[in-house]
Amino acid sequence: RVLFRSPRHDEVTVAIIGAGFAGLCTGAKLVEAGIDDLLLIDGAGDVGGVWYWNRYPGAMCDTAAMIYLPMLEETGRMPSAKYVHAPEIHEHARAIATTYGLHERALLSTEVESVTWDEASARWVIRTDRGDAIRARFVAMGTGPLHRPKLPSIPGIETFAGPAFHTSRWDYGVTGGTPDGEPMTRLSALRVGIIGTGATAVQCIPALGRDAGVLEVFQRTPSSIDVRDDWETDPEWAAKLQPGWQAARRAKAFTEPPLPTLQLQRRQTFTAEEKLRAQENANIDYMMRIHKRIDEIVEDRTTADALKPWYMFMCKRPCFHNDYLPTYNRPNVHLVDTHGKGILEIGENGPIFEGKEYPLDLLIYATGFEVQKTGTWNRITGEGGRDLQDKYADGIRTLLGIHTHGYPNMFIMGGYQASFNFNLTDVLQAQGDHIAACIDHVRTNGYATIDCTEAAEDWWVEEVIEHRGKTNRNAECTPGYYNFEGEFNRRQDGNYNGGFPKYYANLGAAREKMTENFTFTK
Question: 78-81 — which CB contacts under 8 Å span 24+ positions?
């Protein structure tokens, strides 16, 4: 329920759009730097970002919580297990806000409509759906590239007669149950369908299979499902941890190679050709192990074969779960394999594939999120009235995925051309540190604005092109958000794949040579 409030027309030093971990980490770093005149703006009713919205059954982090959850030491918290569920993650986000007084600096249930640079006053003007016109000296975009739910453009989607919802807007009024894992008792006599078998579906399908009368799973592309090696945190062990333990744990995590590259460590030197072949062989071996696991768990041979991923590791987001594959052994759970086509028609009674209708009482869309490139879905207008979408029309152009020339005092977090890292909060914390340092530099030296140079931007675009990674190539990977659903064709779009340690070093190097990489005005 959104309460009425009067529009705001005040001015702040820093406005942060988004109150998920990106906004919270940046806000916390700014408070630590003595910049407390800040405002977080978010359309949600509380902080937490993705963990506010995603309350589907089984939602949890798929990165170890001790490195995924930022600022554990600062908040005095410890995860209950190696992998924790969404309610605990959301509570941790709230703890960060409480520790740094960010709830009092948050403007919630408020959607940003436009962000416009006012050259005369050197301020950003932020307009919202609540009638606000907030002026900010600096703006940080922390909305994330994947936050707007995506419904598929399937003909007839609007004709389905029963209840339907996206997983990020789960309706427990329809299903029964709670985000804490209580059984969804209202599904016991219903035929339920779910479209999608990506990371979200892998987490919620076990609960749906347990509680639904019948569950029909509609698959376009199978996910790779590896073991989730989980355990509860030993409180005696946790009590012995020394200060700085989380930073050390994070540093170790991001210097370890991804799973399929482990075999490359057996030799110290490789030619380029040898390295490519060894990587390909390690990749194939890993995926064959995934196939073997499916054969060992799934009893029906046709279903098992349909669940086997046919692409290379990291073409699609890898998943880790212990209950997903066994769910297909339940007699009430049926896999509808569309062989890469996806569902192409929905009727009044349910999805239709190759002429066969699947009657349902409830239809759930686990179809992911729209890929967004500019830091916010709404209009961003920089110097000379140039829309950021127009600047990016021929390809994304940034420095470090954070700065973009012609948009002074603006910072983008967690977006494209930043480091590709399975643990996103590593990137967000590093970017939060960088943004706070840049703002502090501007204020300490009496400058009005900071903007990256075109030369620095050109250099970073070439770095991204050089370190694209295989997930950015159409021909080698299945369609997904890693490659803009297979429509990826601009060389510099996507992520920097040179590794997080190198990206982190580049952040520091950019600040060490401020006068070379940035221009400043008084």
Answer: 78/233, 78/235, 78/238, 79/233, 80/232, 80/233, 81/230, 81/231, 81/232, 81/233
